[in-house]
UniProtKB/TrEMBL annotation:
<dbReference type="GO" id="GO:0005829">
    <property type="term" value="C:cytosol"/>
</dbReference>
<keyword id="KW-0489">Methyltransferase</keyword>
<dbReference type="GO" id="GO:0008173">
    <property type="term" value="F:RNA methyltransferase activity"/>
</dbReference>
<dbReference type="Pfam" id="PF00588">
    <property type="entry name" value="SpoU_methylase"/>
</dbReference>
<dbReference type="InterPro" id="IPR029028">
    <property type="entry name" value="Alpha/beta_knot_MTases"/>
</dbReference>
<dbReference type="GO" id="GO:0032259">
    <property type="term" value="P:methylation"/>
</dbReference>
<dbReference type="InterPro" id="IPR029026">
    <property type="entry name" value="tRNA_m1G_MTases_N"/>
</dbReference>
<dbReference type="GO" id="GO:0003723">
    <property type="term" value="F:RNA binding"/>
</dbReference>
<dbReference type="InterPro" id="IPR001537">
    <property type="entry name" value="SpoU_MeTrfase"/>
</dbReference>
<protein>
    <submittedName>
        <fullName>23S rRNA (Guanosine-2'-O-)-methyltransferase RlmB</fullName>
        <ecNumber>2.1.1.185</ecNumber>
    </submittedName>
</protein>
<keyword id="KW-0808">Transferase</keyword>
<dbReference type="GO" id="GO:0006396">
    <property type="term" value="P:RNA processing"/>
</dbReference>
<dbReference type="InterPro" id="IPR004441">
    <property type="entry name" value="rRNA_MeTrfase_TrmH"/>
</dbReference>
<feature type="domain" description="tRNA/rRNA methyltransferase SpoU type">
    <location>
        <begin position="119"/>
        <end position="259"/>
    </location>
</feature>
């Protein structure tokens, strides 16, 4: 009986969707869909015996007109391989976050159609998913044109990143590249200035013209930028640190750099 049920319900799962069963992430996705217009879940599975804790979420679901189905309770554990808690009553099927590759990035730059110069954030060895999510949020808030991350030795999109980014994973162009060193060389050949951040740089961020086409590289908090990447930067820049702490959280530093570019590019309210 269970085997028949699970086959039946598996067929109902939308193609190219991601299963999310963390209630806090589901709530964040629903709120972002309502407030910012980011894509809501494609489908929601809800238990029949849902408790009062979910009433606010049900209100959001109704406002967003999301399709709902009510599978038997035992299906929830079978679909999630037993990972869902007994008291959790909702599973969301969300559109997968589709990333782009280096070829797409280069083609975009060759056929640049934006009214302002390119502005990208590059991450080099950022393994913390919370930092990646926060960086994505800053990229979107600053109106930058995308984020570039290496395929290996870097955090990638998961449920935590989706939650921390507050919807930015749904709207920011995310480029995954096989070889960051090669990608940086290609960007330089296309006229993109590469700005590496390091607390040992003599030039400050505020001394650099950020109105030019540029990509700002952030390294890991522990090791910073790799030596190979440093050698391929047009400028190495730092932020003035006036206190006793020698560095900032990576996502905070990224936000400062991006919004300095916004300021220089004559943004007006």
């Amino acid at each position: 009986m269970h085997k028949i049920n699970i086959i039946y319900w598996k067929k109902k799962i939308p193609n190219d969707s991601e299963i999310i069963y963390n209630i806090h992430i589901i709530k964040t996705i629903l709120l972002n869909a309502k407030i910012f217009g980011t894509p809501p879940p494609i489908l929601l599975w809800i238990k029949n015996n849902i408790n009062k804790y979910y009433y606010k979420i049900l209100s959001l679901i109704e406002q967003l007109s999301i399709k709902i189905e009510n599978p038997p309770n035992e299906i929830f554990k079978l679909i999630t391989n037993g990972k869902i808690r007994n008291n959790q009553s909702i599973i969301a099927f969300c559109k997968m976050v589709f990333t782009k590759n280096e070829k797409t990035l280069i083609n975009r730059l060759l056929n640049w159609k934006e009214s302002v110069a390119p502005l990208f954030l590059i991450l080099n060895g950022i393994t913390d998913t919370y930092n990646l999510g926060a960086c994505l949020r800053s990229v979107d808030a600053a109106g930058a044109h995308g984020i570039i991350i290496p395929k290996t030795k870097n955090a990638h999109i998961n449920n935590i990143v989706r939650k921390v980014s507050s919807g930015a994973t749904e709207v920011v162009l995310i480029y995954i590249v096989n070889n960051l060193y090669n990608t940086i060389n290609k960007l330089r050949n296309l006229g993109i200035w590469i700005l590496g951040t390091t607390n040992k740089a003599k030039k400050f961020l505020f001394d650099i013209d950020l109105k030019i086409p540029c990509a700002i590289i952030m390294g890991s908090e522990g090791y910073g930028l790799s030596n190979l990447i440093k050698k391929n930067c047009d400028y190495l820049i730092s932020l003035p640190m006036l206190g006793k702490i020698s560095s900032l959280n990576i996502s905070v530093a990224a936000g400062i750099c991006l919004f300095e570019a916004v300021r220089q590019r004559n943004f007006k309210i």
